[in-house]
Design brief:
16-stranded antiparallel beta barrel; mainly beta; disordered N terminus; globular; single chain; Porin; three-stranded antiparallel beta sheet; 3 helices; porin; 8% helix
């Protein structure tokens, strides 16, 4: 028995050691859990525990293998989950956050295949508060521009360039996997320039019939922002760091053709006798963060959103003002405590739809009037 164990161990060692010399696999994750208070959900206060706001709670595996000649194989499998009940996030998908394989080169960039982030998330989101340091509650109304990563894109081929004197670019194409080639497909591209403390980024995305099928680019269950005929988003942003302060501005423009609903507040149904042809959002965001010490920062955000509600009975212009404040303290390199609050006021023209009342992304539900705020106290641990 002992001889067999020694032999088995020797064979296993012979197989594993060379592989470890050329490849690596990393297990990692985030647990983000906290207490939320919403002042008005249908006229009532709500107290709740919620998971994954500054960062979505997740676990994942990522790895590389050296193929020689400066080329390496790469992969990532990443699963989102709810800490409170153990359920999978992203509509119950096992690897709903990311799932891809590809090749990468320091000289030529990378090509990856699978379920991935689009170019808005890769490039533009980092210039916004929600896509950088603040998360869910600081998103633009209904996360209309996907800078908080409401949806990922399936069936996707992605190219990401190496950094060339501070300039980097990339793009995605997501197949419909349908006999109708354009039915629920997506494509995006973006770029960024970094020079010391300066970051400038811009992106564009278009999705045809997003969420209309189960096998297309954007899922039709628990992983979309708008169900519509076409989704078109573009924007640009800038961040600049001066000493301990980082200041940012971002502009995004979202055009939704023939919108039917949003996963955040449900159906967008115009009054009887009227048909909604398109919905447009323009988001203007100012954000800032001050790092008082290596362990403690305070951040703030203000966003003005102007909407165009284009119906057969005429054009209306609702608007939204969003304010966010956050403080974060690191107990260690991997564990922090944070406190944040977000407020939204819905104003402008009345559309006689759910868009007329306030809704802070991440709140337990829509307000009964034009105002809503959410306060969150939470703990985050990274492993």
């Amino acid at each position: 028995m002992k001889a067999r164990n020694v032999l088995a161990a020797s064979v296993l060692s012979a197989c594993v050691v060379p592989a470890m010399a050329q490849s690596s696999v990393t297990l990692y994750g985030v647990i983000d859990e906290g207490f939320d208070f919403t002042n008005n959900v249908g006229g009532s206060k709500v107290y709740e525990l919620q998971s994954g706001y500054v960062q979505g709670s997740r676990w994942g595996l990522k790895g590389t293998e050296d193929l020689g000649g400066g080329l390496k194989a790469v992969f990532r499998l990443e699963s989102g989950y709810d800490v409170n009940n153990g359920k999978l996030a992203q509509g119950g998908l096992m690897f709903g956050r990311q799932a891809y394989v590809g090749v990468a080169s320091d000289t030529y960039g990378s090509v990856t295949l699978g379920r991935q982030y689009d170019s808005l998330v890769d490039f533009l989101a980092q210039t916004t508060a929600n896509g950088n340091w603040a998360g869910y509650l600081f998103s633009h109304p209904y996360d209309n521009d996907n800078t908080d990563n409401t949806f990922r894109v399936n069936n996707t081929v992605k190219y990401t360039s190496p950094s060339l004197a501070g300039f980097q670019f990339g793009g995605t194409y997501s197949f419909s996997n349908d006999t109708n080639f354009a039915n629920n497909r997506q494509y995006s591209f973006g770029a960024q320039y970094t020079n010391g403390d300066l970051l400038i980024a811009a992106s564009y995305l278009q999705a045809n019939n997003p969420s209309s099928t189960a096998t297309g680019a954007i899922n039709n269950g628990g992983d979309e922002n708008f169900l519509s005929e076409r989704l078109r988003i573009f924007g640009a942003g800038i961040n600049y760091t001066i000493g301990s302060a980082t200041l940012g501005f971002a502009y995004t423009n979202t055009d939704v053709a023939q919108p039917l609903s949003t996963s955040y507040v449900g159906a967008i149904t115009p009054p009887a006798g009227s048909t909604l042809s398109s919905l447009r959002f323009q988001n203007f965001e100012l954000n800032g963060k001050y790092q008082f010490t290596p362990s403690f920062f305070v951040g703030a955000m203000y966003t003005y959103t102007r909407a165009d509600f284009n119906a057969t009975t005429g054009k209306l212009h609702p608007n939204y003002q969003s304010i966010g404040l956050m403080a974060d303290y690191n107990l260690s390199k991997r564990t922090d405590l944070y406190l944040q609050g977000a407020y939204q006021h819905a104003g402008g023209d009345k559309t006689q739809t759910v868009l007329d009342v306030a809704y802070v992304p991440g709140a337990a539900g829509v307000s009964s009037n034009s105002n809503q705020f959410v306060i969150r106290a939470a703990m985050r641990h990274k492993f």
